Amino acid sequence: MRIAHRLTSTLSALLTATLLMAQEPAKTNNIVVSGSIQSDVLIPQNDHETGAEKGDDWARTNTYADVSVMSKYVDGGARFEFLQHPLPGFEKDFKGWGVPFVYIKGKLKNAEVTAGSFYEQFGSGFILRAYEERSLGIDSHLLGGRVVYRPVEGIQVKALAGKQRQYWSLSHSWISGADVEVSIDAWSKRMQDSGTRLTIGASWVNKYEKQEDIMVDATHRLNLPEHVNAFDVRADLQKGGFHLLAEYAQKTQDPSADNGYIYRRGYVTMLSASYSQKGVSILAQAKRSDNMSFRSERSAIGTSSHINHLPAFTMDHTYALAALYPYATQPDGEWAYQLNLGYRWKRNTVIGGRYGTLVKVNVSYVHSIDHHRPDGNAAAAGTDGYGSAFWKWGDNKYYHDVNVQVEKKITKDLSLNLMYMNQYYNKTVIEGHGGDVHSNIFVADAKYRFGRSATLRGELQYLTTKDDEGDWLYGLLELSLAPHWMFTASDMYNCGDTHRHYYQGLVTYHIGSHRIQAGFGRTRAGYNCSGGVCRYMPATKGFTLSYNYNF
Predict the structure, then answer these.
(1) Is residue 353 left, alpha or beta, with left meaning phi > 0 and alpha meaning psi from -120 to 50?
(2) Category of 193 on φ-ψ map: left (φ > 0), alpha (ψ -120 to 50) or beta
(3) Do the beta carbons of residue 293 and residue 167 sit within 8 Å?
(4) Among 183, 255, 366, 461, which has the minimal tally of Cβ within 10 Å of its Cβ?
(5) In angstroms, how far is CA 393 from the centroid of its own chain?
(6) Using CA atoms, how far apart are residues 7 and 256, in angstroms rounded to an integer?
(7) 357 phi and psi, to 5 degrees?
(8) Per-residue pLDDT tens for 163-210?
(9) 3-state DSSP call for residue 27?
(10) What stretch of H or E contains 15?
(11) What pTM was computed for the model?
């Protein structure tokens, strides 16, 4: 950590100098300063009914302040975080404050060189995705160096090395890698004239992590590989409204807590095809992953330490009850399929009516892969684990989601969205307990505009199931008074086992680049998910205050 602190201090000094330069006239230096402030505050209360606890702090906050300075040849940036008294769900890992993210970037005609903190993704992220998702407490940026070089038109090369952020420290391992992308169409006038784009890419990532004592039994220690290598190849074709992406990645032996310290290699294969033109859209995707969890620390669990990302291929729902049982990608492997269809009936037709009608259909299906061993026993630490036939499914279905949405403008001022969703959720696999949950969800979302400045929106949702906690009912009213005010009231009620209300009242004020929101309410304990990555959030009750500013 001594090296990291010195590097951070040096970069902070350089950034400060750059910020001072920004005080000079912009027309002389052509310097642009931008940034943001985000602060979410909870004044907690005890709630014996839901188990929400006030704790020792009268107020809790997650606060972030970012600043970036851009010029012709040099960019710089930093982020300050204050989580000394963090929001519920962040106490264990993120408690503290400081400047965990700082960088300086030099730019030449064909190259960029970054020193300090940076985010990066190779391809679809199967072997490397360093990113931030604050709502999930994820910040997997690397602290080190990165070079981006474009030797000729159509070729881009990246090389990087660094250590991954682990909350308020750095991982023990070193991560290095390289990526090459070649745009074939840049060298073909015929492809350019026909609107055809073809990009081919290849990536490599290495993790170096020292040995540690992982015992199989009282006398036998695992011989752990210090170097783990991952490779990715992909091809991306676009022509008109057609888009095809094929990608394959593989990882060498990587015994870890996720796979029970077995020595099987990891694999992931994906095929994605889409087509869109005016009024029509189609997306079809399939993915098979097998033992592809890739962490900077082999013994880590939870949402931390992930070097890569495996998208869930399930729809991220915004409606409360549709998102009540979100899917989390399974690290030991899965077959995942997704199909999205969209069609807009034109105006002045039987189905389209006066304003047209949009219908969207989404189908997601996730199943386990085949796991088999010649002796019929479960995979044991120190062994190759298991075999797996590529096309064969395993014994467990993990998830399915079939939903239909209709978006219809009834009159000039009234619009209506309707959704029906059928869902299966294997709670035992995804959360570790709870059995199977079969549910049907109905949503009606209406919006009415009063003149130019006032809009009233209402939601009514119903989830029916004989499993888990039983049925749920959700209602919301939202009044917008442009350009400044918004008033929101909602309640999510369990009609089944608990008969609890989870209510929320919010007042939001916008002015320029400032957004302030104040409210009071109670939230349910559960999982917050995005893209197949989930974090458990405890129940809360109390007053909330949120401030956002961009400059």
Answers:
(1) left
(2) alpha
(3) no
(4) 183
(5) 27
(6) 30
(7) -140, 130
(8) 999 999 999 999 999 999 999 999 999 999 999 999 999 999 999 999
(9) helix
(10) helix 2-21
(11) 0.89
